[in-house]
Design brief:
heterodimer; A: Rossmann fold; 2 domains; five-stranded parallel β-sheet; four-stranded parallel β-sheet; 13 helices; B: TIM Barrel; eight-stranded mixed β-sheet
Chain lengths: 338, 411
């Protein structure tokens, strides 16, 4: 199960580390289309492994991975932890609440401290945009961005792409990418790093992307990213092939951005009736955690044939395994990557 | 330190409002005794051969956040107006008095008194007492005063005392905790941002209140096209308003923030390229009155942080002259106008007899080679911190010798 031997890797992508020549994964913005496709293809083997009863590979045996989370997280932290452990690595989690950050240590000093413990990869989540890059510049090992402020959350965008591609293939679409698809992302675009990474990723994969939010939650100048910004949810849904709903990030809001959750649901809640504006078999996605009854109704979230919300979570582990595998190939001395 | 023998600086180009004049200048007892093409050293004078350099008035830097003598002297700055944002703030006469004496003899510091107690914007400070203690203006500090009633009373009071009111033009509620100007870069980087109109609103209100009160209003930094337009219109109407800018805003746009480099974290934040171009036009048209360094040295504790968490500000004293001379090379302005922006206008606003080469003024003289090339190098800076966004940039213009009150300062 060494990933470099898969036939697709040899035929479709440059050899060895030319397929993914980055030390760190700080954002989708740094990636070329073929690098995204390579990550997705590499993740497929881990999807298979994760569906078997024995979910263990020892690819990363002996390596240490630190999950440094300066911001609260349940699903992403768990997903990275499981990914590392299934690959056989020693995984250590560091929560900001328990760390010396509370004692006044600067982020860079924390990074240097972590680096001195000689980890083989560091996964970072931080509340400030650009924090991952700041740490990456100071440490010697690969750094994975698990979300920095309102900037990027690359593994979320990759897992969303993988989940969507699986669903499309299940429906008989053998395409590699999302050319021709219209994807609507609706919710708190302003505060969402998921939206930014997804816009970049989905566009690189050929989709046309609409974003929908009330004006206060729409970043200024978003149209220069090549998306179509809309305030009217019904118009944004029209003939959309995929609807991706985002949570209101109230913890990032300074001041009042919308009058009430009830009113937000009235305008932007994805209900069964509203979903009818979209394409007939439109796929529903949500990066979680969901606020049922606010941005999405339960009967939509739980649609077995349309909603792939739980599959997104499943793909998250596989994508993170692929990222950890690829970024540690150099230190493991994998042929062509050293 | 008093000037002992008179000095005659010969063979230079005198920078006067009328233009560049080849000639000499004679300094006696700390003051300018004579200048012109026909001035010759008298017996017993020390002579200093300028070798063709510009003989310019020492720079008067309006609105610095720290007294950083080596950096100021490197940059040809002989007088600096200190912002009240100190710890504790300059909101008390004895503190103002202490600061007013702090740089002498080789650097004169002109304190700007805090307009309100603790710079909180809610209670007028003892401005008249601080004026007597040496304050040369009042300032709202890094922030603007949100309460319009308070601002009007401040302007009226300052008008009575004939003190310039130096303001920061950003509507506080709109600016919030923004670290960037709303637009493509802020959106791509995911930085908290505020629309450039935060400046427009603040300027429009302050101009209206200045018009009402007759106060002398100096907007320390105007950085947007619409802001310049408001100042331009107000000047045409005869409002007593002036404005300034720092080199960062006419040299850089928000594109410079693209790698999250915190040395480009400024207040107000860097603007769009269109605004940068508008700034250069406004400087050329004469809408801008002052170019200042905004010198704000910040060490790694304040800058080696994620972008939005870092403190705003840049160490600008050493690059102020070279960046402004860049505008001369780009033919935005000529040399006399450069020194109007750097020296005479700020001195005039502070009501001090300096900033222009005339007989009787303090002999604050900079000899400048305007073409000398050098590289800005963080590792070799004189400032107490090296937070410059211009690192490794090639520039031209270097101070060759500096005199304060007729005494030569070792550079």
């Amino acid at each position: 199960m060494t990933s470099t031997q898969s036939p697709t890797a040899q035929s479709r992508f440059p050899a060895g580390r030319l397929a993914f020549p980055h030390r760190d994964l700080t954002g989708i913005g740094q990636l070329e289309r073929h690098e995204i496709l390579y990550l997705l293809d590499q993740a497929e083997q881990w999807v298979e492994l994760n569906r078997q009863s024995t979910k263990h590979a020892d690819l990363l045996a002996g390596l240490t991975i630190i999950n440094a989370f300066f911001e609260n997280s349940t699903r992403t932290l768990l997903s990275f932890e499981i990914a590392g452990k299934r690959l056989g690595a020693d995984v250590v989690n560091m929560h900001a609440a328990q760390s010396s950050v509370k004692k006044g240590e600067t982020l860079i000093d924390t990074a240097i401290t972590l680096n001195a413990m000689r980890p083989d990869a560091i996964v970072i989540r931080h509340g400030s945009s650009g924090a991952t890059q700041l740490i990456a510049d100071k440490v010697d090992c690969p750094v994975l961005n698990a979300g920095d402020g309102q900037h990027e959350h690359p593994t979320q965008a990759l897992l969303d792409a993988l989940a969507l591609r699986h669903k499309l293939r299940e429906r008989g679409d053998s395409g590699d990418d999302f050319t021709g698809l219209t994807i609507t992302i609706c919710g708190d675009i302003l505060h969402s790093r998921v939206a930014r990474s997804n816009i970049l990723c989905l566009q690189a994969m050929g989709a046309s992307v609409r974003v929908c939010a009330p004006p206060a939650l729409m970043p200024s100048g978003i149209d220069v990213l090549g998306v179509e910004p809309l305030h009217d949810f019904d118009a944004a849904l029209r003939n959309a092939d995929v609807v991706m709903m985002l949570r209101l990030q109230t913890e990032r809001m300074e001041g009042q951005f919308i009058p009430s959750a009830r009113e937000y649901h009235h305008l932007y809640g994805l209900t069964n009736a509203r979903l009818a504006f979209a394409a007939g078999d439109a796929i529903v996605m949500h990066p979680g955690p969901m606020n049922r009854g606010v941005e999405i109704d339960s009967d939509v979230a739980d649609m077995l044939d349309r909603s792939i919300i739980t599959q997104q979570v499943e793909m998250g582990v596989a994508i993170r395994m692929a990222c950890l595998d690829i970024l540690t190939r150099r230190v493991r001395g994998v042929e062509g990557w050293a | 330190m008093r000037q002992a023998p008179p000095i005659t600086i010969t063979r230079g180009k005198l920078v006067t409002p009328a233009g560049l004049i080849e000639g000499s200048i004679r300094l006696e007892a700390g003051r300018i005794a004579a200048l012109g093409p026909d001035i010759n050293p008298q017996v017993d004078d020390k002579t200093h051969d300028a070798k063709g350099a510009l003989i310019a008035p020492g720079l008067v830097d309006l609105g610095v956040f720290a007294i950083d003598k080596p950096a100021f002297h490197f940059g040809g700055i002989t007088r600096a107006a200190l912002m009240p944002d100190q710890s504790p703030p300059l909101d008390y006469p004895s503190r103002v008095n202490f600061i007013a004496k702090s740089g002498k003899p080789d650097l004169w510091v002109h304190p700007l008194a805090a307009a309100t107690c603790g710079l909180q914007g809610s209670e007028l400070a003892e401005i008249a007492l601080m004026k007597d203690a040496g304050a040369r203006g009042v300032s709202t500090g890094r922030r603007w005063i949100a309460d319009s009633g308070m601002m009007l009373r401040l302007l009226q009071y300052a008008a009575m005392l004939d003190l310039v009111v130096v303001t920061h033009a950003e509507d506080a509620a709109l600016a919030g905790e923004a670290a960037a100007t709303a637009g493509e870069i802020a959106t791509r980087l995911g930085l908290p941002s505020a629309p450039a109109e935060a400046e427009t609103l603040a300027i429009a209100r302050d101009i209206a209140l200045a018009e009402l009160s007759g106060a002398r209003l100096h907007i320390r930094q105007v950085t947007t096209a619409r802001g310049f337009q408001l100042v331009r219109e107000a000047k045409v109407r005869g409002v007593n308003v002036t404005c300034g800018i720092t080199p960062a805003h006419f040299m850089l746009s928000d594109l410079a923030m693209a790698d999250f480099r915190t040395f480009t974290r400024l207040s107000p934040p860097l603007r769009s390229e269109a605004d940068r171009q508008a700034a250069r036009t406004a400087i050329g048209e004469g809408v801008v009155d002052v170019i200042a360094s905004g010198h704000d040295p910040r060490g790694p504790e304040a800058k080696r942080l994620p972008f939005a968490d870092a403190a705003p500000g840049m160490a600008g004293a050493e690059t102020l002259l070279a960046m402004t001379l860049g505008l001369v090379r780009d033919e935005v302005i000529d040399t006399p106008r450069a020194f109007e922006l750097l020296s005479s206008k700020p001195a005039h606003l502070l009501n001090v007899d300096a900033g222009v080469l005339v007989e009787g003024h303090e002999a604050d003289i900079a000899l400048i080679d305007p073409d000398a090339p050098w590289f800005v190098d963080r590792s070799k800076m004189e400032a107490t911190a090296s937070n410059t966004p211009f690192d490794r940039q090639g520039v031209q213009g270097r101070v060759r010798a500096l005199f304060k009150g007729g005494v030569r300062i070792a550079l």
